[in-house]
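dumping the sequnces here before i forget
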Amino acid sequence: MFTIMMYIVASCLLILSFVKDRKKTLLAMKKAWKSFENILPQFLAIIVIIGIMLAVLSPEVISGLIGEKSGWLGMLMASLVGSVTLIPGFVAFPLTAALLKSGAGIMQIAVFISTLMMVGIVSIPLEIKYFGKKAALLRNSLAFVFSFIAAIAIGVVLR
Amino acid sequence: MKMLAKRYKYFLALIVINMLVYILYPSVGQKSMNITWNNTVEMLSVIPPIFVLLGLLDVWVQRETMIKLMGEKSGIVGILIAFFLGSAAAGPLYAAFPIAGVLLHKGSKFSNVLIFIGAWSTTKIPMLLFEASAMGWKFMLTRFVIDIPGIMVIAYVTEKLLNEKEKQYIYDQAGNVVA
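..and the predicted 3d for all of it:
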């Protein structure tokens, strides 16, 4: 749905741009292609890593890793799994909802979701390309720590 | 050809690894190839509008305008725009970095670019709706409310811990990647 909206917005602006200035629009398309081609190797590498990782870390394996263990060890485990995996939300949320039903702790689930979204070990080489090593590592470490704070807050509110 | 092979060396190495996995553990290898194929199709369907917008942004939005909107002195306006741009998007996080590159190239404040990345990663509107339906409104809202200050703190602390030289390097780098 949102993807369709992105297409509509992009095409409208593209047409508007073309009507206003053909040369500039052509330049924009050239830039779009160049920036895409520029990072395509990294994109493809990330996608293959995700493929291998998700095949090994199947929903059952993830459930085993973060479903049973509770307490701080469970949270640590959930945060590590969340940091290294890169699962799209429409796969992750049904999984976490099922985990919750089967008895996983809310804080473990929350830390998993937060790290999943904010910490990206797999995409760090790409992030370094744009932000440099220090900033990329800092952002990811801070996000990792913050995920625990968010999880504790959720644990308190939803208890 | 040689250049191409060199640029794609990690990708090619990973394909080889995947094939080895397929030979040793056919079911896992098959599964990973399926997932990779599905993700590639998904990437190719989600990414074109993102890059078209990126190109248009680069050509039409003047550096001065961007500095005014998201630069050093943009204040609360810059923060709000960063949150809005990130939240209104669709697509995986790795697609956000090229846009971040253009924002930096055009003179956005680094912390605002980090807020944009934070919003893209956690407060995307379609994702929030999905989260609410799967995990419940209370879960989603609690996370949302704590994520907003969290994203800002992460952005400011990251920027504060970088010195001028490191920041200059990031802006130079953004110029290289975009141009």
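The first helix of chain B runs from residue 2 to 7.
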